Amino acid sequence: MIDPFGRAITYLRISVTDRCDFRCVYCMAEDMTFLPKRDLLSLEELDRLASAFISKGVRKLRLTGGEPLVRKNIMHLIRSLSRHLESGALEELTLTTNGSQLARHAAELADCGVKRINVSVDTLDADKFRQITRWGDLAKVREGIRAAQAAGLKIKINAVALKGFNDAEIPAMMEWAHGEGMELTLIETMPLGEIDADRTDQYLPLSTVRAGLEARYTLRDIPFRTGGPARYVEVAETGGRLGFITPMTHNFCESCNRVRVTCTGTLFMCLGQEDAADLRTPMRASEGDALLHQAIDEAIGRKPKGHDFVIDRATRRPSVSRHMSVTGG
Ligand code: SAM
Ligand code: SF4
């Protein structure tokens, strides 16, 4: 799959559910309306969809959401998809999780061939954690992280940088992550979906965070890439790796290799654009995958060059109306 700008599409992210057991303030409104369950693709359909993409050249598959581990019987899907790892068709099967259910699933994930996972943690203060997730329990997430480490999974911590919330804590979070042998990646907030708060109050450019860190640490740019949009530095004092995902201050679209499918089978060619393709209808139209492949090809043929996110006082509305939990982070 090669898009009109010559980028090979080798990375698929599937949002397996739009539901979540947290309500992070930058991600969701408190009173979210979720999709009716009947609109969701079944686990068998998600498998069929993923397998079609793999046969078309996808080498890396990430399950996300919403919270992927709250989807009922999700381990059946992961177990089934692991056959593509065994055959060598897929290089990596991974997931992004809030960690709340990780303690229960870590060992089985490792057994299915999952090697590394991303866990989102925005603060190490239990009260602040409850505040940012609206009711999440940090102790449970930390228990999940320990279970994942014990199972031999490599962990990358994702933290959204939020002005006045965790800026002062970032050095401590980095020391913690690196001290535990984990990577830390910082993310700028993106204007996706209506939330209850004002995004201008939350938005913290990572250029500011980096300048702050450079006053205390020696950061060295390194060419390390995971196939994602993060740019990495090595921190001399901790020996660990720190990533920056900067959709707002630095456009990373030129090297984009990914597309996203929602839990209803809608393919989004860009996280930051509205254009999408329905894959559920062609998939359900016949037993064979010819129509599905055709719909995928057509959609990749119109993958846009990039996003145009804006967060400022004059732009009150989100750039994209759907929430991150719909398209999958
Ligand atoms: N529930 C899982 C989790 O939190 O890791 C997976 C889905 S979540 C939507 C994926 C990532 O997107 C999380 O790291 C989250 O912090 C991030 N995220 C959510 N909304 C965002 C936004 N508006 N801007 C930037 N990152 C966002
Ligand atoms: Fe749930 Fe993840 Fe969104 Fe938080 S960021 S509300 S954990 S989907």
N-to-C series of helices and strands: EHEHEHEHHEHEHHEEEEEEHHH
On the 0-100 scale, what is the average pLDDT?
Answer: 92
Largest sheet: 12 strands, mixed
Q: Note the beta-strand portion.
A: 15-25%
The CATH architecture comes to: Alpha-Beta Barrel
Uncertain spans = none
Counting DSSP H or I runs of 4 or more residues, the number of helices is 11
What is the global morphology? globular
Question: So, the CATH homologous superfamily?
Answer: Aldolase class I
Helix content: 25-40%
CATH class: Alpha Beta
Cα-atom Rg, whole angstroms? 19 Å
Ligand types: S-adenosylmethionine, iron/sulfur cluster
Give the distance, in angstroms, between the N- and C-terminal Cα atoms: 22 Å
* Spatial ordering of strands, largest sheet: 7-8-9-6-5-4-3-2-1-10-11-12
Oligomer: single chain
What is the total domain count? 1
Q: How many strand units? A: 12
Briefly note the structural class of the backbone. Answer: alpha/beta
